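Narrative summary of target 7.
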Amino acid sequence: MRYLYCTLVFLVFASTSWGETKVTVDAGRGEVSVYIPEEYNKEKPIPLIVALHGFTGSSEIVKKHWRMIRLVDDKQFILCVPDGTKNSEGKRFWNATKACCDLENDGVDDSGYLRSLVELIETQYAVDPKSIHFMGHSNGGFMSLRMACDHADKIASVQSLAGAMFLDPTEHVPAEPVHVLQVHGTEDKSIKYDGGCWDGRCYPSARETVEMWAGFNQCKMVPKQGGTIDLVRNVEGEDTTVLRYKNDETKKVSELWTIHGASHGPRFNQTYSPRIVDWLLSHRKSD
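Modeled conformation, tokenized:
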């Protein structure tokens, strides 16, 4: 069931040390932090990025470790950082797939809630409708991919760090193409790069996840190597290889960034967040 805009709260705080303004919105689950560029102009629509935490995580962890807020002014986008609901043990989660992470089968409609949150922000700010994006780590990565499946009409691109798709893609076919970027470490012991199961809950590999989206996006199923990138601090040199599936006609892509030797929580260098934001903002819906 879709969440209603039964509650609307806007609290404007002083600008942060980077210059952007923090406000809060409430789409029915409590206040959610939203960051607006200091030079925001209501006559000029700008992109929206929603960043999702992992299982047991929080919006505060996203703010601290991803260092996204500092990019809002520089790259001119609106940033929304929501929290998942808590289970009986007080652990926050997103109900994304059977594998992750509604472990108590609460059945909470996070997909509907997050869409409602986006639509609420759209009523208050000039959001570019062709540039709405989700990104997330682990459970947040699963949820970002779920959002692309459920709301392809709304979302331009998503990034999943150490997340995965549904095991059976035929149950969740998007209504239209969505650009997808999967980032995954080969030494991830929590959500394994090659896929796996935990407590009987199974998920596909990073490559399978990307190939599912390559199929949805009608990309050529023979990928191209996209070079190498240096993303993490504890692996020497250019640690990440890029594999890209592309539809040459529509320009839709499905990409895999494999971080060789990285764990579930890679120690990223300062280039990581700017690279991800640049990737998202450059992958819009077709004009």
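The chain has six helices and 14 strands.
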